[in-house]
Amino acid sequence: MSLDTLYTAETPEGIALSLRPAGVMSRSLAYLVDAGIRLVIFFFAALIARPMGGVGSAFLMILYFALEWFYPVLFEMTKSGATPGKRMLGLHVVMDSGLPITPAASITRNLLRAADFLPLGYAAGMLCMITRRDFKRLGDLAAGTLVVYHQTVQLHGVPPPAPATPPARKLSPGEQAAIISWAGRSGRLTAARLDELAVLANSVTRQETGLHAKGEHDATRRLQSVAQWLLGHRQGGGSP
Description:
Order of helices and strands: EEHHHHEHHHHEEHHH
Oligomer: single chain
Largest sheet: 3 strands, antiparallel
Number of domains: 2
Structural class: mainly alpha
Helix content: 40-55%
């Protein structure tokens, strides 16, 4: 029986996202997978460290600390935003806004697993998750994060079709979100307002300042092409 529900988030740039938070069962299974992976790593490390005596024992203590506290952070900072266990279950960690998780948030949510564990067996974390519609544990509440199903993220608003074109420079996650939001609102903005906003992004589309009316329309077309590229439509409108 699925206990998951829909969560709607809005980014600081105005993007509306539909996210489906992961429930207790899927998150528990992901945790067990990751626990098994950590156990296997520690087991083989113990075999190697056994002949080393005191040095080996010290190494194992450091490894245990690293696996317990930094294993999740390391994987959450990757492009997938998920540990191997979460990836296997189709989950990943995002900010409340739907944007990629930040290093500070990842560290916070994982350090507070100690509080979620109290008084025994993650009782506090489980109780917190089953009493909330977004299934947040204490660490998620403190860090402002969500664990969601990766393939249920949906944008509100469909950008118009355009040939995909890469941006002229590297874009931050916030800039990417702003461009996709602008493209998704194309059908709800006047042509003049659409062009006005597109001109502000001239550094992204290789446009020069001081554009005349025709140039403004060209800026809109170019920025729509960049939005398609950011959405992954990089081969004739298909998937990357």
